[in-house]
Amino acid sequence: MKTFFLRSSLTCLIIHLSQLQAFSCPVCLGDPDAPMTKGISVGILLMLGILGSVFTGFAGFVFFIARRAGASPDGPVDNS
C-alpha cells in the first residue's frame, strides 16, 4: 500500500511538473476587449441575474408560506 501511494504521488508530481503552459480557452488567454470576451461577460451576468431572480422568488414563496402557516384560519385570536 505504501509503495502504491509513493508511485501514484510520484506519477502525479511528474505529470504536474511536465506541463509547460496552462491550457485554456482563447477567450481567457486572448484580448480582454474582444467581442467574444464581452459576450461571455454579458452571458455570465445574465445567468447570475436569472439565478438571483429565481432565489428571490423562492425566498418570497417561503416567506409567504411561513406567514400563512402562522395565521389562524378563524382570524386573529384575542387572548384577553
Give a structural overview.
The chain has 80 residues and is mainly α. The protein is built from three helices and no strands. The chain starts with a helix and ends in a 10-residue tail after the last helix. The mean pLDDT is 82.
SSE topology sketch:
Blueprint lengths: L1 H17 L7 H4 L5 H36 L10
**General shape:** elongated
| Spatial separation of the terminal alpha carbons | 75 Å
| SSE-based structural type | mainly alpha
Radius of gyration over alpha carbons?
Answer: 28 Å
Low-confidence parts: none
Quaternary structure: single chain
| Secondary structure tally: strands | 0
Helix content: over 70%
H/I helix tally:
3
Short description:
This protein is mainly alpha-helical and 80 residues long. The chain has a domain of 41 residues. Helix content is 71%, strand content 0%.
Keywords:
71% helix; 80 residues; mainly alpha
